[in-house]
Amino acid sequence: MNYDLIALDIDGTLLTDGHVLTPVVREAVREAHRRGAEIVLCTGRGPVNALPVLDELGLAGTMITHNGAATVDSARREVLHQYSIDPAEIVRFREYCLRAGMHFDINTPFEMLIEGITPEAEEMYRLYGASPVLRDPSEPLPEGLVKFTLFGGIADLDRVEAEWNTWSHGLQHIRSGDYFIDVQHRDASKGTALRQLAQLRGIDQSRVMAIGNYFNDVGMLTFAGLGVAVANSPEAVKSAADVLTRSNEEDGVAHALQEFAWS
């Protein structure tokens, strides 16, 4: 086995566009685990809707969730590290979405809170296996927030992203998918969390492999000794990676593991 730690993005990478874990990919990931690599899901999802994917793989262990804002122990359902944001810092983003009539959710490490829902958002949550909880908008925002996520159409999010890029604020916003913008702590990223985990394990950077497909994966792709982008990645993500593999619709993770992890 060429790598001791293998970080895998979930959506658009490990899963097909239909959110399916194919048998070929499942077996390849399990084979990498059998050969001695620690498999770490490294995702923009929260722990609650990342856990079913880990269960489907038949694995357990540490997961990097919320784009690196919360690292959790899947077996104990325990937060190992989180980058919290002050509720006051997201008020501006929340009010913007309310004025624009755009759907958003507010996340602690293990909770996803919403203040309303549209049919489109309801279908999106179903596809991602998420079960948001309706909160009373008149209540104060909870402490321990790690992420604020805006959901909408591509053109709408392109416009929002361009506008938010002109704002001065202490957080970061990142496009985590065509239909999502995540707002979180400035220091939170998959790359930072993966670096912390590798150091904790005593694993050299050269022994880390990461596979991803989107802009929120760039940090982990550039940190890893081998960063692999699947073929369905945007060009900027491909440029950040060391090598390319097949798309998520063509069992790209399996091919990458077979070609680079134990060849």
Overview in brief:
One of its GO terms (molecular function) is hydrolase activity. Helix content is 35%, strand content 24%.
Structure description:
The protein is an alpha/beta fold. It has 2 domains: 5-82 and 188-261, HAD superfamily/HAD-like (Rossmann fold), CATH 3.40.50; 87-185, Hypothetical Protein, Haloacid Dehalogenase-like Hydrolase, Chain: A, domain 2. It has helices at 10-14, 23-34, 47-57, 91-100, 119-128, 154-164, 190-201, 218-223, 235-240, 252-261, and strands at 5-8, 38-42, 62-65, 70-73, 78-82, 103-107, 112-114, 133-134, 147-151, 171-177, 180-185, 208-212, 226-230, 243-245. An 8-stranded mixed beta sheet has the order 5-4-3-2-1-12-13-14, sandwiched between helices. A 6-stranded mixed beta sheet has the order 8-7-6-9-11-10, with helices on one face. The longest helix is centred in the first third of the chain and has 12 residues, at 23-34. The chain is globular, with a radius of gyration of 18 Å. The model has no long low-confidence stretch (mean pLDDT 96).
Protein traits:
hydrolase activity, 35% helix, HAD_sf, Rossmann fold, 24% strand, Cof, Cof-type HAD-IIB family hydrolase, HAD-SF_hydro_IIB, alpha/beta, 2 domains, eight-stranded mixed β-sheet, Hypothetical Protein, Haloacid Dehalogenase-like Hydrolase, Chain: A, domain 2
Chain-wise SSE layout:
Layout: E1 5-8, H1 10-14, H2 23-34, E2 38-42, H3 47-57, E3 62-65, E4 70-73, E5 78-82, H4 91-100, E6 103-107, E7 112-114, H5 119-128, E8 133-134, E9 147-151, H6 154-164, E10 171-177, E11 180-185, H7 190-201, E12 208-212, H8 218-223, E13 226-230, H9 235-240, E14 243-245, H10 252-261
Parallel strand pairs: 1-2, 1-12, 2-3, 7-8, 12-13, 13-14
Antiparallel strand pairs: 3-4, 4-5, 6-7, 6-9, 9-11, 10-11
Helix pairs in contact: 2-10
